[in-house]
Amino acid sequence: MRVQRTRSSPSAPHSPLTRYPLGGRRADTRNDRSGQRGWVLFDDRCGFCRRWVPFWETTLKERGFRIAPLQSPWVGRALALPDDVVAEDLRLLLPEGGSLAGADVYRYLMRRIWWAYPLYALSAAPVLRNLFDWGYRTFAANRYRFSTACRLSGNPSASPPGTENTGPPGSDAIQ
Q1: Which backbone phi and psi does 40 adopt, to 5 degrees?
Q2: Selection from 128, 124, 88, 94 nearest residue 106 by Cα
Q3: Least confident of 28-32, 71-75, 133-137, 145-149
Q4: Domain regions of the chain by residue span
């Protein structure tokens, strides 16, 4: 028996084109006037981070996230944290002003990407959560060593975060 598959309209509220496995749905950013769901902030002095985060920029952008180095002039002011604390972890700055750091950023993003959702589910499970956090923390503490070993150069001229009082490029949504 041959089954013929039909596509429903992409604008249909629960069409197969807008639903994802495990009951998730594509993030809808139409209600947010900027369409932006946050800024993923990475350490530009770390060669691995400088290569890894921009590699995923298209995937993140499709879901309403933008990327910027932690050393961008507006970041220190937006996060309201001391410069030495700002660059310790990968960070996510949310439009309403909240922020996440470290492994929580990965979990937050994986939860919003349908094909990464299984990784989110594993990383959020009680025992595996601690293992995921430990893995992130260990890597973050040694990221410059990993970068050197993999011959990935960071931006040595990246200035410390918070050196100017300008806002994020092209956005008034996050102050």
Answers
A1: -90, 120
A2: 124
A3: 28-32
A4: 33-149
Burial of 58 (0-12, 13-18, 19+ CB in 10 A): exposed
CA 96 from centroid of its chain's CA atoms: 16
Mean local confidence (pLDDT), 104-124: 95
Edge-to-edge strand order for the sheet containing 91-93?
Answer: 65-69, 38-42, 91-93, 99-101
**152 φ/ψ angles, rounded to the nearest 5 degrees:** -105, 115
- Assess contact for 53 and 40: CB atoms under 8 A: yes
pTM of the shown model: 0.68
Residue 8: pLDDT above 60? Answer: no
Q: Sign of the C-alpha dihedral, residues 69, 73, 77, 83?
A: positive
- Most confident segment among 23-27, 42-46, 78-82, 105-109: 105-109
